[in-house]
Amino acid sequence: MAIALALAVQLAQLALVLLLAPLLTGYVRKLKAHLVGRQGPPLLQPYRELLRLLRKDVVLAESASWLFRAAPYLIFATTWVAAALVPTFAAGLVFSYAADVIAIVALLGAARFMLALAGLDVGTSFGGIGASREMMIASLAEPAMLMVVFTLSLLAGSTQLSSIAAALQAPEVGLRVSLALALVALIMVALAENARIPVDNPATHLELTMVHEAMILEYSGRHLALIEAASYLKLVLYVSLIACVFFPWGIAGPGQGAAAYLAGTGVYIAKLGVAGFALAVFETAIAKMRVFRVSDFLGAALMLGLLAALLLFVTQAT
Amino acid sequence: MIVHRSDWEQAAARLQAGEASLVALWGEPGSAHMALLDQNEIHTLSIACDGGRYPSVGRLHPPAIRLERAMRDLHGLEPDGLPDTRQWLHHDEPYRFLPAEGESLHQIPVGPVHAGIIEPGHFRFTANGETVVRLEERLGYVHKGTEQLMAGAPLERAARLAGRVSGDSTVAYALAFAHAVEAASGVEPPPRAVWLRALMAELERLANHCGDIGAVCNDAAFVVLHAQFGWLREQVLRTAARCFGHRLMMDCVVPGGVRADLAAEGQHALRVLAALVRSRFPELVEVYDNTESLKDRTVGTGILTPALAAQFAAGGYVGRASGRAFDARRTPGYAPYGELEFDVPVVQAGDVNARVWIRVREVGQSVALIEQLLAALPTGSIYAEARPSAGEGLALVEGFRGDIFAWVRMRSDGHVERCHLRDPSWFQWPLLEAAIEGNIVADFPLCNKSFNCSYSGHDL
What we know:
Number of strands of chain B: 14
Radius of gyration of chain B: 22 Å
Oligomer: heterodimer
Mean pLDDT of chain A: 89
């Protein structure tokens, strides 16, 4: 019975991230529109877009192979699982013991790998450009991400996100320089990973400047719906990750019951709201950087991550 | 002036030596014409094409190459010695792009259908990784046959066609056409019409420059300024609609005068608009100037050297951002600008930022001009009937993009026999190819938007 209940909570988490993901993207779009003085699309527009795309037929390029058709399902599945592994309203769910934060990074890496392959598969020049840019970004973002993971794991003594969240909630952790550096590094990685300004522009119509959009130019119908849903999920994942590690308050513990879960959900949605607002303000205030500046940007993230880990060693040694 | 082969070739040699600049080169069945700017005056040369052949200007002066290719397509005139004999405006045969060979070079075809809502044009990039080694343009997708439609058309219809060569410059085109017709038939438009035309032309410049500055910001994903400048442009367009009955002031300028008079209420609206631009525009420019992430994209990107700008006689902000101090309102100049005070801003940098700044400074000048025009607007009629008479006339008018050249030959029944309209983009498109070299592929949209060449005006 206990197991059934734990499974139910885990499934609720799976459903929650999937349901909230389009809303977060719609909310950020709406806020960005308001910030520049426009009305913007309705909050629920991303849901409608997904439904519209799901209903539409798939148009396949003649040169597309099975890989191109399989990639959207794999990308969606890996991203969804990864998103479900990050504690949102409750920590210590059943799945969280099956995979730690390194597994989450690996799942996202697998999704990216599939996407880049799919971009190359159809053989258009834009797919190739997008894939090569994405890989350039990834080769810098992943090490930076891992440095952040190492810092947190060293601090918490575990790579389990639930344990990290619990450990960082303890009063003895306090304010640490390492944590601040790791937070900044993780935010920079999150911006790059989610194809946000200043690394990529999610709203652009200019083929030549695209990164993420260039890879998926040839997708249509349900394939495109799955990829779009995966990118919505990825945004939720990164926000949840930052929230659960650096702002772990209000997350329900294992088996605390329905009331705690409900409160946890409320706090979680509030956190998403704050993060979405911050993202919209940041994106409005800054221009997209030149493609080759991205390496400087992510290099800085890597450096911050490295510094965070080093500082931790220095302070632990003394 | 009808000249012989030797004079024609001599003119081409002078162009090559940089002693004069090419204003226009156009044809009609049986003869070719060339307009030169020499010592701030426009001279025209005509040559009879025996057997449909004439000596190529492009052989000596590269800016003429595309014009000659277009003449070949449109009129079957064969330039002797033209180095590039591929079709240009016509798309009947498969196109051979120029080869660019080397290790690790790859090609990126873009267009003619683009992801955004813009005009069609094909761009063939040869890139080494992200760095552009060569860009070749392929245009002609919006060829409308304007010249052929104009041949034999009644004056009214021809004026409408002229105003539709490039929609964003409709006032400037209508003005150029009207000037040419008036020169051909000796009609003098009433003073009030002349001043109202200048008012419309400055409004058009204002609207387009605001739109362009915002669009450059948008291409760097800086949406705030895009929205703000777009709002400003919208205010200009709405005021234009209130004053003259059409947002773009299409068909308002006609040979002999203007179609729409400015009521007292319209004058008030224009004063309010000028005050609005004066108060809001500097704030927005300050945001542009103080946003480092944006300046990082525009400064040093897509540099056009002054030497190339001079060789191609690039007009408008493209030329003036690269040190070419040419403005058709000054040289050769036309009424009423002789009585008005304004600056022609020039900078040397030649990058995207410089082209933005020229526009910024020109917005200021346009507002000042609108205020001056309103302050001393003459009264009286706005239209003088043109007597049908045969003759030829030409005109050079400053549109927001640069100098628009118009040449017209009228028949004695008041119909147009032949007309040629040369868009400033003819000399700007090739420079875009030069400016992007050595830049990265992802910066092309930014460069392209800072040039903002017309597809429709170029494709005729």
